[in-house]
Hints:
By secondary structure, this protein is an alpha+beta fold. The protein has 3 domains: 2-124, no CATH class; 131-229, Pdz3 Domain; 232-396 and 426-512, Alpha-Beta Complex (2-enoyl-CoA Hydratase, Chain A, domain 1), CATH 3.90.226. It is built from 12 helices and 26 strands. It has helices spanning 11-17, 46-59, 88-96, 120-125, 160-163, 187-190, 194-204, 272-286, 304-314, 331-339, 370-378, 459-470; strands at 2-7, 114-116, 129-132, 135-141, 148-155, 171-175, 209-215, 218-225, 228-231, 235-243, 246-253, 260-262, 268-270, 291-295, 301-303, 323-328, 345-347, 358-363, 384-388, 396-398, 401-407, 413-420, 422-428, 443-444, 490-491, 506-508. A 6-stranded antiparallel sheet has the order 8-7-6-5-4-25. A 6-stranded mixed sheet has the order 10-11-14-18-19-24, sandwiched between helices. Strand 4 (135-141) and strand 5 form a beta hairpin. Helix 2 runs parallel beside helix 3 and helix 9 runs parallel beside helix 11 (370-378). The termini are far apart. The model is unreliable at 1-31, 478-484 and 514-519 (pLDDT under 50).
Amino acid sequence: MKKILSIRNLCWFLFLSGMATFTSCKKHATKPNNGGNTTANGRLSDEDSLRFYVWYYMESDSNNIPQYYWYDQIPSSFKWFNPIFPNADSMLAGQQGLTSYPILNGQKVDRYSFLDRTGAVSSQIEGGQLGDKGFDVRWAGNTNNDSTNLFVISAYAAGPAGQAHVQRGWQIIAVNNNKNVEYDGPGYLDGTDANVNMVINAIYGSSPASFTFARENEPDTTITISNAQYAFNPILFDTVYNLNGTNVGYMVYNSFVSVYNYDSSGNETATPAKGQIDDVFNKFQSEGIKDLIIDERYNGGGAVNTAEYLDNLIAPAGETGQIMYTYTFNTPLENYFKSQNYDFSTKFQKQGSLALNHVFFIVSYGTVSAAELTINNLKPVMDVKLIGTTTYGKPVGFIPQSIYVVNDTTKQEDHVADLYAINFQTKNQAGNGDYFNGMTPDKMEDDYVDLNWGDMRDSSLIEAFNYIKNGNWARSYNNARLVNHPGMFRAVPDMNGRIINRRFNGMVDQRLNIREPKMLPFKKK
């Protein structure tokens, strides 16, 4: 039997609030006086301990300051030990279901908070590590017929698929020798389509699977791919194009892996992700690019510090010292910080010497959170253009909280879960940040997935190139197909997120996940 120790990183907050109870993050060994199931020794069960601390962190009690952004939408009648919630995950979902926002027409606003019981998110965002087959897929339709086809949309070079030379644009025509890889109706959306479930389980499950690929101008090939742990480069592709004498940089950026990690004293250490970004931007700078295209169409977000770093590389030098973005918290927490004279704003600090005419972002419903933050921060300070389909809509982020228990046998701390519950919202220099319905592109353009990265037949690239050369878009949305690639396949919208949500989607600020107020990312005025 184990007993709960604490939400370890709640300590810094409790220190701030001056609360006597739990300030030293002592063990919570006995049952709280407001409910829950106990064991024979009078302690809460492990799962009830987790349920209690999830509730306690988000909602707190009358003596503390809640950290959950929408805490005031959870009524006092909501009980963490309600038997309709069999575990902490279902209790968290119950809280989420009570949140709403006017611009969403009464729909729940918190479609984001979750528990990570494996530490996979921290491994991805802070460590740049994944443990899977290393590629992602989408279904796509050809308007010449009604069939729906399966394509590889991205592959990490260091992952198992990348090591097998699998590339974006390859069509999957069989999985484990099963050629039924299509979907043909609402079963795709509601999770009952057997073909879709078979494909998802093969690609994202833990067992090895064989895939038969059809490739443009190449024979079909069958490859067996197994899961593996690997360090990944979030930059999937980069190049410099020359358009009538003007150099244009292009980068496919797929995940906001942290550029800095932080120790318990708040000291930062650069990660490999920073060096990977620096290498590409040094090349852009040496090539003298005047326009930049960042492809974020599948970027689910990640670390806030990486969004800041990218924005400082892209923004005009004259913005140094000006507001990049500002945090907002729930009212009690924000009032506390204000009473301590904290400035919630982050300022631009120009990095490098790029001076750009335009920055284009290629986006889709798979563009989430930190990816959207990067765009929103730049909109008031330079010419920003979006190409693609409407983004996901997540202007809010997490302060990750690790929950541990003490094992009665080993006396060691065991990790139970990481809680990602919404803690803050961000707004740019102009005070804009309510894009819960997503960001609408300046040029609507579908995602054609049967071309590899950087192929100049990509319609999104064609639109960016034309705007750079002529100051306008090349064609009307959904116009006739390009004559040099008549068989283009357009990705089917994944509006329910069955594929998109296979990976982390969010915005994390690890700098707030610390114990002392002097280490906060915002400073006293």
